[in-house]
Known about the structure:
This protein is 6% helix and 37% strand. It is mostly beta strands. It has a 17-stranded parallel beta sheet, with helices on one face. Strands 6-9-12-15-18-22-26-30-34-39-44-47-50-53 form a 14-stranded parallel beta sheet, with no helix packed on it. Strands 14-17-20-24-28-32-36-41-46-49-52-55 form a twelve-stranded parallel beta sheet, with no helix packed on it. The termini are far apart.
Amino acid sequence: MSLPVYVDDDAPSDPGPGDSSISDPLEDGSFERPFDAIQKGLYAAGLGQEVLVAGGLYTGAGNGNLDPGGKGLSVRCNLSRDCVIEADTPCGFLFQSSLPLTSVIEGFQIHAVGGTAVCCINESPTIRDCDLSQSIVGLDGLHSSPLVDHCDVRGNSSAGLRFLDGAPQIMDSTLEANAGPAVELIALADGHIERCLFRGNFAFEGAGVAVYDASAEVIDSVLMSNHARLVGGGVYVSHGELTIAHSEFQQNEANGEGGAVYVSNGELTVRDSAFQYNGAYESSGGVLRLINSTARIHETVFRENDAGRGAGGIAATNGNLTIDRSLFEFNESYDGVGGIEGAGGSIRITNSILARNRGSSAAGAIGMVGGDLYIEGCTFHANEPRTLVVDGGAAAMTNSIVWNSPVVYDCCPIEGPISVSYSDVEFGILGTGNMAIDPRLFLDNRTDPTRYALRTDSPCINRGNPGIDSPPDAVDFAGGARLQACRVDIGAFESAATGQLDCDGSQSSDACDVLSGVEDCNANLTPDECEIGAPTVVFEETFSRGGLLASYWPVAEGEIEINSFGGFPYDFVLFLIEENLLESAEMDLSGAFGATLQMEIGPEGDNGTMDIDFWDGNRWRLLRTESLVNFVPGTLANPRVIDLPSDALHSAFKIRIHGPQSQYRWRLDDIVVSRIDDDCNGNGRIDTCDASEAAHDCNNNAALDVCDIDQARVGHRQDYDLGVWPDSIALGDFDNDGDNDLAVGRGPFYSGGYVRLMINDGFGMFQVAEELAAGVWPRAIVAGDIDNDADIDLVAAAGNLQLLRNYGGIWWGFAPGVGLATPGIDLVAQDVALGDVDQDGDLDLVATFGTLGAGSPQFAVLLNDGAGQFTLVHSYELPGEAARSVVLFDADHDGDLDAAATIQLYSDGVIVLPNLGSAPLGQWRGFGERMPFAASAFGGAQSFHVAAGDMDRDGFVDLAVANPMGSMDGATGSIGVLRNAGANSGGWLGFKPLHEIGVDLGPTAVALGDLNGDGWLDAATALSERSKLGVLINRRSDLDGEWLGFMPQPDRAVTGYPMDVALGDVSGDGPLDVIVANRAANSVGGSSGVPRVSVFHIQTGADADCNTNSVPDSCESVGDCDGDGVGDGCELDCNRNEVPDDCELAGGAADCNDNGTPDDCDVATGRSRDCDADGVPDECTSEHEFSARSPLMTPIYYALPQEWIVRTPPTPASDVVIDVTLQVGLTATEYVDVLLNGTLLSHFATSTDGACPQPPRGRPPHLIHIGLTAAEFQTLLVGGDAVFSITTNWDAGCYGPSPPARSSLSYARIDVRYSVAGGLDCDRTGQPDSCDLADGTSLDLDGSGVLDECEGFGDADLDGIRGSMDASLLAACVLGPGGPLAEKCGAFDYNRDGDVDLGDLQGFWLTFGR
């Protein structure tokens, strides 16, 4: 290796130190004789030789325009930066050779005050560890690609480093305080800048880096405090390309646009970088200004940048901007958009966070005018005043969160035309998959972006749309995989708690199921089958984002910071309209089957009420009033869950909360609105999808027409934990506060029994109250006032019969169960029913006893003495095994309660026992012969439970029977309907042919009630084997009056093995609700679900389809001649003359028998006979008796007169007999008045005893007999009706000035009877005697003109009937009249010929049995 060439201007051998013009004549570049000028050394050096320069100042001749000559020299200062070159030439160093050898200069300070420190022309040297300062240009390159490494470029007056063409590299260098671009790249130059610091440079444009028709990379570098008088404080690009990676831009500024970066007609790529505290003070783009350019930004932070106007972050005009996995936070514009502003072009933002950016009057995060905007997987938080403003163009957002924008109450976080889907937008926005629920971000004290991640309980998890055009390997803000089990989250972060949702148990996630083709008509990535009947939250306010667990309200305007954070009230969902009024944003409930409002509330003071209103689309309406009496002050009550009415189910639903006076305060927490979708037509799709895709929504309510018709809207299910085996339910107002409470029988399998009380708050929410011991395993429980004290008591079938008395008072609860004696019955009680079977005015008991293998079941009757003391008076053996249910009903329409019992293991599973009644005030005769009926076509149906009601509305009570096994294969159950055929003069006619409806397996209970508000009885059933509630809607009758049966609605899930179901209005809104007891254990005690009581709130409002054409009546234009709200085409029209029967009768059509049907129809249909063909039913033309009986009228009280109306009674042909059976406890000053149409008929008082009225306690009733002549009766009729009323006074000494509403314990029943004129009908067959003779049903063998049976012929034993005894006598008379029988034989001589012969036999057999 050759030795270096040495240069030292201060060597001992140099005669002129520091003056290169005076040299050592012997200098040869050796260590001993170094050259005194650098250029001499460069000339002397050979190819690739090193030139080593000693420290010192080099100036003058030979120390400027230093040219290595292309020899690839290495020119080094022997001590770093100790060699100072002060050149007075155009260049300090001049590299101009085109040879391929690379020269190196290292360790110099190079100053060319009037020129350029280093000039490179066609040559690309390495400049290392040099200081290129105090020159016009630090380095000027032309067609050169030098490497500048570890250099300082400072204080140059025109540019730091400037390149025209070439590919320079600037590494690990500092460029500072240059009065021009620190790096300037011109005309095809391609610069690479890495690990450099640009600080304090000043230029008109691009103080750090300026690129003109060139390209540059800025890697791992810092640009800070650079200033541009015009644009591009850090970087300026015009018609060029710039890449920024792993770099930081801080405190760069421009008086004009682009505080950090300005790009015009160029391309920009930014990766993994940070921009902070940059500013464009007089214009737009605090960080970046793009004009007609393309920019791609990835994993970059924009924080606390600002602009005087325009955008504080990025301003783009007619460009293409793509942003991914980036953070924009605390950026601000004093007259524009805080974050990103676009005009024309396109902007695409994905997987990014825009938070706490502030604009002036425009958007805080993004403003877009024209062009295309696409946002996906982003989180917008607390941007103000609005998050996003769009003006024209095409804009779309998906899978994103927009929350906590502190907008004024009359606006919204997003303004302008934009398509939003699968996003969580505060205050709500229309679009597929959108919601308005607190996203539950961390928002804690973290300083990194994970504070915007989703908490594990966030509703945004798994709610995004994975079907968008993102690649399969897409990642979220943090770099985690986006697609997890075919699901994505909403927002910038993918939660670690995503998991796999598999609602249908297919072993594939729900989203994967949908993407593979499973039906998802509303595109929310949940199979439709899983959404049917399940609540979906559409609005939520938790009041917890500011760190508070709950909010106090009402609040004055000055207190609104209770819902704020950092001084800005950005995180409230409910709008404070005024001091005592909160109002929610709108939410879309259109097409929902139902919806609920849930909220936790509680008063802080000791007074005041709070009203909750809802918007029905036209006006505010009261939903509920909360009163202090329902709460303990200072506490939050259990969540209120309120079913919203059907007219709340529209696209602009909202709630409003009125507070009390300002001195009273209420506490609110967790306000949630949920919608429930359904599949009413059972096609496996959500109804709203069917309605949107087919022309079957005539009223445009987003629900199928078929779903509007006759549906009962089954609302949410509220569950209550009561302990093991809740098995039976009874409803009653136990605490006398005007609402229905619940009593639930429960107990382990054959060990212990209890009745648990559930007290209603007046709105259908229950407080689980006291529990009472009651026998063993209460299988049935009934409620009624058994001791006539005006309180509701309970009786349970719990091993034996258990009586639980209500203490009454200001409610003191119940006494524990006391067993009732049933001597001679050693079987388990199965069911019990209450009713006044002996018609003495108090409630008696009937019960069934028996279990499998325990012998013949029993039916028992226990009569009440009026004081609640029961005596077993009758027991009847029943056929088969395992008696189950019992019900009381008036089968034969005679006013007495008959009984029906079910036998589980018996082919004819329903046994009817007719009530034999009693004479007025006489001894009750008990029940008659047992009559078996089959309730299923399948003999093994195991009829379990029976309910009674007039299902076909023919005036007779029918039976509905739950058959757990309704088919041979054992896969389904059934409800058997036994329709009452009515009664005639011969007695009860039994049941019409069986009507059976298939249901799911295991119905163990059935209840009847009008669930959809159409006036017809519907059914609810407990489907134990499937853990479901079944609902069957009554289809009513067709125009011919033929009943159409039941139509099942979709079943509803319950918590496990339901055993009982009851109907009653527990929510106080009118419609019946459904209560289910879920035993959660099968018949042998095996576990099956969760033991709870479930309450389903029902809403009516369903439309009718009276003409069964599948079009709701509200959509059809039909006349309504009688104004009853039912179209004429849907009314009964028996004679098909297109005039409803009601209107014909109102117009004067004859209805002599007052049955609501014109007489000609009665005759035409065979309902009435017309033997003489005169067009008038025979019952109207023959003489007959009219009778009517009132129901039990109770209580008799002065402030509540009891009325009974007999509609248009027929004209009497005899005196009118009115019997009043009265049970009443009276004082000396008390009386009872009976009036007819206001005229006093009877004034009844008892003897003076000085005592206040007491319960009758079994005293015999009074009978008031009133007689009126026919003329008197007709005179008293007003408008054709007979209105009977009963009233009493009250005793102030007993009751005070205002007696309680339940003070009277009296009851009454009224019977009216008289004859009606007509043709002679001596045998009371309902047709004239002349017709009886004409049709051969009667004879007149003696020619007297009177029917033989009416003259007494054939009744020889005078017992009033021609029976078997008479037949025996007749036989004796025929064989040989005479002796003791002779005088009796005359009774058989019908033709009066003196003999009993064959002619007389004909007469007898024709009248036998009469």
